[in-house]
UniProtKB/TrEMBL annotation:
GO terms for biological process: immune response; phagocytosis; T cell activation. InterPro entries: CEA_cell_adhesion (IPR050831), Ig-like_dom_sf (IPR036179), Ig-like_fold (IPR013783), Ig_V-set (IPR013106). CDD domains: IgV_CEACAM_D1 (cd05774). This is CEA cell adhesion molecule 13. One of its GO terms (cellular component) is external side of plasma membrane. Belongs to the immunoglobulin superfamily. CEA family. It comes from the Eukaryota. Pfam families: V-set.
Amino acid sequence: MMNSAALSCKDCTSWQGLLFTVSLLTCWLHPTTSHLTIKAVPPIAVEGENVLLFVHNLPKNVKAFSWYSGAAPFKCCEIASHVIATNFTAVGLAHSGRETVLNNGSLLIKSVTRKDSGYYTLRTLDSTSRPEIIRAEFFVHRPLLGYKKHLTPSQLTIQLVPLRVEENINIFLSVFNLPKKLQVFAWHKGVLPLEHLKIASHSFLTNSTTLGYAYYDRVKVRNDGSLLLFNVKKKDAGLYTLRTVSVDLISEWAIIDLQVNSK
């Protein structure tokens, strides 16, 4: 992808002179409405990390959406398009094999490089085929001198058991490749580590587990990071994030998108 100040993307016709005011430290961009927003997590990443372009408040009447690299929805820059009702994704010309589209509109980019820095565009279509366009950006830099490089976040993975989830069953979020020498890990609903979104956390220093208020009687946490969620409801659908912090303060995270089907 091109520099974040350029409108076009790689392999597209270069548009000279049409520039955007860019702040590398800004991950929020105001959309055409005050509701739909995107947050880059993290907004400034190190090469090899994962970046999630997290969509907040996707309107319920949105039927389909597409992601593009660059600041405009050019067909040659299309990463992927997604139909929500069927949960079907079609990859575009700009798909590198590292991008995953989630049903809530978010885009996960794995193992980012410096070339990935810049703008990304989300185009949504509602039930009347009215389009809306919103943009986000993030910046990728090389590891700094003395920086202890994170393990590749994709090594920490979550697998859903069973793969198809229906209401009123128990599910298991099985964790693989949990890092060694951890201080703590925590589960949150969504991607932001906010206290009211916390499901559970576990401290290895005290060998104690703290459960979030909303999930107090519905979850069980294992020492390997896995999470058992009882009696799943429709409202439980969405993103779940596992974060780990090691004794030398290296952090990793993994995300899973839970879809709950009616019986």
